[in-house]
Amino acid sequence: MNRVIQGNLLKLAAAFLFLQTLIITLSPAVRFRTWGVDLRWSQWIAFLLWGLFVLRAHRSIINLLPDADPYLFPAAAFLSGWGLLTIWRLDTVDANWGQVFGPRQALWLGVSIVVLVVGLGFPATLNFIRKYKYLLLSSGLLLTALTLAFGTNPGGIGPRLWLGCCGIFFQPSEPLKLLLVAYLAAYLADKLPINLRAFPLIYPTFLLSGIAILLLLFQRDLGTASIFVVLYTIMIYLATGRRRIVLISAAALVLMGFAGYYLIDIIRVRIDSWFNPWADPSGTSYQIIQSILAIANGGPEGRGPGLGSPALVPVAISDFIFAAIAEETGLIGTIGLLAIFGIILIRGLRTALCASDSFRRLLAAGVTAYFGVQSLLIIGGNLRLLPLTGVTLPFISYGGSSLLTSFIGLLILLLISNHMDEEPAPLPRPQPYFALGVFLSLGLLASALANSWWAVVRGPDLLTRTDNPRRIIEDRYVPRGILLDRTNTQINGTEGETSTYTRVYSYPDLAPVVGYNHPIYGQSGLEASLDEYLRGLRGNPTITIWWDHLLYGMAPKGLDVRLSLDLYLQQRADEMMADQRGAVVLLNAQTGEIYVMSSHPTFDPRRLDEIGARLNKDPGKPLINRATQGLYAVGTMTEPFEQALHDNKTLTSDELQSVYDTFSFNHAPLLRMQVAEPTNEPDGNDLHISPLQAALASAALSNHGTIPTPRIAMAVNTPNAGWISLPALGTPFEALQAEAADETAQSLKVDGQNYWAHTGYAEGDESPVTWFIAGTLPNWQAAPLVVVVSLEENDAQLARRIGEELLVDAMSP
After folding, report:
1. CB-based contact 175:227 (threshold 8 Å)
2. How many angstroms separate the CA atoms of 336 and 17, rounded?
3. What does the pLDDT look like over 72-90, one tens digit per residue?
4. CA distance 581 to 602
5. Cβ within 8 Å of residue 75, ≥6 positions away
6. Pairing relation of β-strands 502-505 and 522-523?
7. Is 540 exposed, middle or buried (0-12, 13-18, 19+ CB in 10 A)?
8. CA angle 40, 45, 48 (to 5 degrees)
9. Cα 575 to Cα 569: distance, rounded to the nearest angstrom
10. How many CA atoms within 13 Å lie on the side-chain side of 736?
């Protein structure tokens, strides 16, 4: 029966890994959306080697341990194959035959399987471990101590935790964990029948265990030191059932954390990054931020093997391999991975409970605890449940020492489980074992919930962060939508082909308004506020978005958006504002459509690579869209509005406030772009508003007292319905009675013209402000128009000339 179960489970694992290998092979064609690319073939070597190794081990287990637990080896084999393919896929020295880490991991997997097969012939009692417990642990300590003098790091930098020669490296602290478990199991099993008092029982274990922990602290291998403390606590608790030991160890870990925070820089950095990674996302918190972004990018179903960007996470083949798997297989894949670990932990604890003597019971429980604690520590670090520790994920992460140690632990469980038919040893205190099972289960559950939080709940918001490099990669492979003016003339577009798409700016003077989409400086303006449409994540059918995400691991083609801007009038305004500081807004007073939005000084988005670093420090503040984000003192600009409500009399502060409320000067308009909130002192004498707000208030004088809702993004070109209108974000409202509005407009009429006008002045915080507002008269037979000019200088004549010329041009198309 065991043979059938184990064989069927291995077939399922092989089918999954075969499918993953096939998808990785086809991933370049999928990413480039063409068959005219080089496919990836080298991972088939990994799959075939894994199959040969696993088949050999399977036959040996069936022949030598026919009663061994049939679930343990398939689970471990599945995880090791998944890890091997992930490492092979991430090893990008060469897309096909130039890998370094993948073949090394395959070699270590072969060595681990050989050790497993040879070890299957060991006596099932494992008495040699019990007999030579001091020798085994002392040897491990000696090897670990040698790293203090002869240690090296294969990467050239970082802690020197390895012993190596001729390109082969071994990390003694990895098997030292199992040696500690074996020593404690043997020692406690020998002492328990004789001495049940806790302190006399355990104080001899402090010496060797304390030496091991001190060695690891000297090595600065803090993750392994933490695992030692936890494993020591678990083993003593299992043997004695004393809860106070758990509490004392937990307090000791907290004290060690506090001491390390103030004494050791690396601990301080990791704890700070754990508590607030967003404070320094591109510095000390870069690893955890990129890990979270990778998990968020995977979402529920993942980007697909070979289609994500997990290599953006540092040390993705080792410390962050869980994040790499999460990005390409999504929440579904990681829940499955956690379930496989759960199977190992459940079957390991079952093996412990059914063991025929106390030594093997403690040993099996300790090995299970080692798998569980180390897995939860690294997974929790990837998910920001715990601080980063730098340990490896058993069976999955790159590292020969870790892989070999994991398979030795598996060997121990298989040997112990082979005698399930024997009578289990008496267990007077089963509660510690059940408590260990609950602890490990809660850890897996917490990991699943945290994974769901980042992948599903927070994922959509996190992926819009400008420091998410995956957006940049996607922009190179998926064409972004075009921004068009009202006559369908291109403003911002995309050129190139798959993998080389770049953003082009046909009318660079509009940069403060329409913004940019840049791989280094992120997004601004309408490129940011309309990003979901331009990126194809909104406006496309849900099935299209889902299918492209599933098939290509990316968004569908971006959608074009038509703006209300008129490039002819926009160019006229920009020509007149070329050497000035300020803004111009021209809009339809009835519909709220913005025909002109000019902000100066401006910048050239085509030269961001050259000038981007200087723009933030430019005193002219060219990045700010002055039309919606610039706030100017109103001064005498509000006189027409005061006249419309209060007939030119001197106003009290309450009456002045009523003017501001009536014309919505105290509230930012609703628009599909960034708009600054107006500022106002309680006495109402220091109101600062944007030119757009002034234009909307002015619209009431040309539109019979009604203020329209502003609109700049007019329509989006959808694949199914063609151009569909984008609704305004608000509704028009009546600010004045039509009679009062019309009378005010007529009183401001310019002689011989069909428009009214008013010039105002204010003393600004940094410079004087000249306002010019004007609009068509109420009896104008065409579309009613208003224009607002705000100049950061005292030049009424210039402001009037710009405003009048632009308004006349708009009235006579």
Report:
1. no
2. 13
3. 999 999 999 999 999 998 8
4. 9
5. 9, 340, 341, 343, 344, 347
6. unpaired
7. buried
8. 130
9. 10
10. 29
Enumerate the β-bridge partners of residue 588: 785
**Each residue's pLDDT tens digit, 90-131:** 875 434 444 588 899 999 999 999 999 999 988 877 888 888
3-state secondary structure of 685: coil
Cα 694 to Cα 125, 240, 673, distances in angstroms: 88, 78, 17
CA-only gyration radius of the chain, Å: 35
| Res 265: pLDDT | 67
Other CB atoms within 10 A of residue 218 CB: 13
pLDDT of 366 above 70: yes
Phi, psi of 162 (to 5 degrees): -115, 150
Taking Cα atoms as reference points, which of 563, 557, 517 lies closest to residue 540?
557
Report how far residue 546's alpha carbon sits from residue 300's, in angstroms, rounded to the nearest whole number. Answer: 11
- Residue 809 has a pLDDT of 93
Output the DSSP codes for 638-677.
GHHHHHHHHTTPPPPHHHHHHHHHHTTTTSPPP-SS--PP
The pTM (predicted TM-score) of the whole model is 0.81
Tell whether omega for the bond before 678 is within 30 degrees of 0, i.e. cis: no
Q: Are the C-beta atoms of 592 and 728 separated by less than 8 Å?
A: yes
Cβ contacts of 799 within 8 Å, gap of 6 or more: 759, 770, 771, 772, 789, 790, 791
Measure the CA–CA gap between 227 and 374, rounded to whole angstroms.
7
User: How confident is the prediction for the chain on average, in pLDDT?
Assistant: 86
Q: Examine the pLDDT at 605 and tell me if it is beyond 90.
A: yes
> Which amino acid is located at 6 in the chain?
Q
